[in-house]
Amino acid sequence: MPQNPDHTAHWPAPTASGAVDATVHVPGSKSVTNRALVLAALASEPGWLRRPLRSRDTLLMAAALRAMGVGIEEGVGPDGTGEAWRVLPTDLRGPATVDVGNAGTVMRFLPPVATLADGPIRFDGDKRSYERPLHGVIDALRALGARIDDDGRGALPLTVQGGGALDGGPVEIDASSSSQFVSALLLSGPRFNQGVEVRHTGATLPSLPHIRMTVDMLRAAGAQVDTPEAGGERNVWRVTPGALLGRDLTIEPDLSNAQPFLAAALVTGGRVTVPDWPSRTTQPGDALREIFTAMGGSCELTDRGLTFTGSGKIHGIDVDLGDVGELTPGIAAVAALADSPSTLRGVAHLRLHETDRLAALTKEINELGGDVTETADGLHIRPRPLHGGTFHTYDDHRMATAGAIIGLAVKGVEIENVGTTAKTLPDFPEMWTGMLGN
Ligand SMILES: O=C(O)C1=C[C@@H](OP(=O)(O)O)[C@@H](O)[C@H](O)C1
Ligand SMILES: C=C(OP(=O)(O)O)C(=O)O
């Protein structure tokens, strides 16, 4: 079982000696890999995932599905080339224990899957997983007919008493704290007796591209999904019951994990190419093309991938990141090095991510001499000359990569527990020094 990495080690973030000029192959998307694993496990026939991400979050997902009986064979692809996983679905069964680590996708996507298992499925995880919102999934599953034993807080740890099937049907949830509540119910929806109709009742809904990713991938697996975009009711998604197809899917590179490398081009006035950048994608990281261009670079999408070129200047930005919240730490890091202030808005829900990201960014940038204040739903960042020091990461992979971005321009930045990047990008330190030509 993948473990939490060493919390004490400090990593001296390398300073860039000049403009970077590198091609960086970024591993597969966490969000696509974990959706693909769930859909393949629920399918009526075997499927393939090519170029899956192998990281803490995706290995936890694979281990959890295996614990419920699913076959996941790691090896080469169907044509004998490249890394691929073969997924062999089966009737799901308990008793089983699922370690969610601190993976939002595992803790939210799997309780609905567990209702389809025959037997109890126990969910537990890192300490932080007890604090991350899960009430939307728990309450909705109970309303749809599931039996769940928890301690009454609407959070982990809990046991889903799988009955081998779930009635399903219409349900209301408030997903303002996480879009993953909606994705979770939709992903298992085709396997519920009556399918599922999810109505979001909250005032705001973060991370819409991630819900689109869920819908796109369900449709590609043969599910019928009605959405608000396709002329349906606002904030209502409907999934018809039916069998899911086994797919042969190549996972796109993780565009949110491409962020620190593109940021390096921006911060050093250099150039970074990320091969295999998809021409069409639901990944929120695609928004970096526009956001980092507005902050002072330019980009070109060709057959070779995405090439991002920094101009040598970094500008502040006023931007609503509600759709692309997971990009906030990297944007905040660049903004701290800019020539004008920034306002990042629409991301109050980041307080309940891997850590309270608004508090953590404010504290860590300010301890390096910065001037960041929290607002009700984001951050004000006024750039100031920064100095070296320890950048704490709070078990948050994106805090570690944010610190590395600042370290490019500021001497003496030490990242505490850079190993936490293993959540989604295990080779980050090697990739980073490789990009810098060290
Ligand atoms: O569904 C997904 O794969 C994700 C949805 C988003 O979650 P929230 O809506 O909770 O922000 C995002 O931040 C997370 O990194 C991945
Ligand atoms: C919020 C994130 O992850 P999770 O899937 O654990 O919610 C993230 O990767 O930025």
Automatic annotation (TrEMBL):
InterPro entries recorded for this chain?
Enolpyruvate_Tfrase_dom, Enolpyruvate_Tfrase_sf, EPSP_synthase, EPSP_synthase_CS, RNA3'P_cycl/enolpyr_Trfase_a/b
**Known EC number:** 2.5.1.19
Q: Which family does it belong to?
A: Belongs to the EPSP synthase family.
Please state where this protein is localized.
Cytoplasm
UniProt xrefs under PROSITE patterns: EPSP_SYNTHASE_1, EPSP_SYNTHASE_2
Q: What is its main location?
A: cytoplasm
Reactions listed under catalytic activity: 3-phosphoshikimate + phosphoenolpyruvate = 5-O-(1-carboxyvinyl)-3-phosphoshikimate + phosphate
Q: List cellular component terms (GO).
A: cytoplasm
Positions contributing to phosphoenolpyruvate binding: 30, 104, 132, 180, 357, 398, 423
**Quaternary structure, from the entry:** Monomer.
The pathway to which it is assigned is: Metabolic intermediate biosynthesis; chorismate biosynthesis; chorismate from D-erythrose 4-phosphate and phosphoenolpyruvate: step 6/7
Name of the protein this chain belongs to: 3-phosphoshikimate 1-carboxyvinyltransferase
UniProt GO molecular function: 3-phosphoshikimate 1-carboxyvinyltransferase activity
> Active site located where?
326
Entry binding sites for 3-phosphoshikimate: 30-31, 35, 178-180, 207, 326, 353
Against PANTHER family, the record matches this protein to: AROM/DEHYDROQUINATE SYNTHASE, PENTAFUNCTIONAL AROM POLYPEPTIDE
Which taxonomic lineage does the organism of this UniProt entry have? Bacteria, Bacillati, Actinomycetota, Actinomycetes, Kitasatosporales
Task: Provide the GO biological process annotations.
Answer: amino acid biosynthetic process; aromatic amino acid family biosynthetic process; chorismate biosynthetic process
Which Pfam families did the record assign? EPSP_synthase
Does the record's keyword annotation contain Zinc? Answer: no
